[in-house]
Amino acid sequence: MEKKYILTEPLVASIAEAKYQTTISWRNGILLSDEPVSLGGQDLGPDPYTLLLSSLASCTLATLRMYIDRKEWKVPEITVKANLFQRIEVGKLVTTIERAIFFNQLMGAEQKDRLLKIAQSCPISKILKNEVIVLDDVF
């Protein structure tokens, strides 16, 4: 099976001696990730949970904006709030992500329902809602 990667170049992340501080290199720059002070980091960047939720929020917003623009609807601002919690169910870790979408204007129920369907079809939503396989190698 041929692999068709989403990214043209892989994301590269590294850590040195600064506790929990990671440098993430991507096609256009560098992003710093860190843990909060309460967990021993210096809180100099978003933690891994925040990065995961940011992926979902930004994908949701971009997908909604593309659809709204294509429909030529007047929706000047969209906001997404996201958080997650975890619990153990039948000996298995279950993660629940809550995503709230705000259109900051009045709109009909039919339009809101359609936009919710569009948000649920964003690529990151699809990844998170389906099976994910992590292939690991150590070099």
TrEMBL record:
<dbReference type="InterPro" id="IPR015946">
    <property type="entry name" value="KH_dom-like_a/b"/>
</dbReference>
<dbReference type="InterPro" id="IPR036102">
    <property type="entry name" value="OsmC/Ohrsf"/>
</dbReference>
<dbReference type="InterPro" id="IPR003718">
    <property type="entry name" value="OsmC/Ohr_fam"/>
</dbReference>
<protein>
    <recommendedName>
        <fullName>Redox protein</fullName>
    </recommendedName>
</protein>
<dbReference type="Pfam" id="PF02566">
    <property type="entry name" value="OsmC"/>
</dbReference>
